[in-house]
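Problem: given the chain below (291 residues), write out its structure.
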Amino acid sequence: MSLGLAATIWGSTYAVTQLALRELEPMLLAFLRLAVASLVLLAISTWRQAFADAKGRLPWKTIVPMAIIGLALFNIATNFGQSFAGAFQGALVQSAVPAVTAIVAMVVLKERLSATRWVGIALVTLGVVLLTVASSPRDSAPRPMLGSLLMLGTCVMWAVYTVLAKGLDEDLVLVSTTAMFCVATVALLPAAMFAVSDGANLVLSASAWTRVIYLGAVGSAAGILLYNNALRAVDANVAGMFANLAPFAGALIGFVALREPVAPLTLVGGLLALGGVALGMKRHAAAAPSA
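Solution.
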């Protein structure tokens, strides 16, 4: 249940991010989003006395790479990827998350993959290739090929994050997640300062601030907490499959809410990727626990 809710939340962030990027430079948006999430998580951790209970047991060797790869770099790459490719295509390219996560989990965690899962991974891969090849420039997607490649890079980052998250102590999920966001926010401060010095707009509308707060408090803080908690109960490759519901929800919202045009070959690629996800999840539907 937690994975499904996290995926639903993340699905909504594609369109919100696309709208926020109309006023905010990608690096500055990433910093503000993580800063809001850090403040929310710090408030929750303080209220629940999470840091006191941790008593110096935080796994910094895991937290720091998760913060840099899965939060800081992931958010920057996602923002630039969407600004170049649009919400619809950017979301669908991220459907490669389960394929990449399954392969990384197999190599690092020695999780076994069935023949059905391999077929699903192949379909997802073919779908993403078609999505990338079929891309063409337009107003909402000026550099779709570059954007698609950046979004594909975020799949690798998220796979690494998921595998690392499997090693977190279940009693330290809240405080570890809070520490992660704080580290990522500090890491992005120089990038945000560079963006401002390079002329990034700091005078934002009320709508823009609302989007930033939603992305930070709901999209990042709530979504990551739900995801990290759920990872205690399922394999990393299964978590990757559930998380992949987010790109398709995001693509649908981008198509409906933002009126982004869809080329026929792009639609074929998206359907192939969706078929691969459905095939991979079918095997685990009966056994997957509710988190």
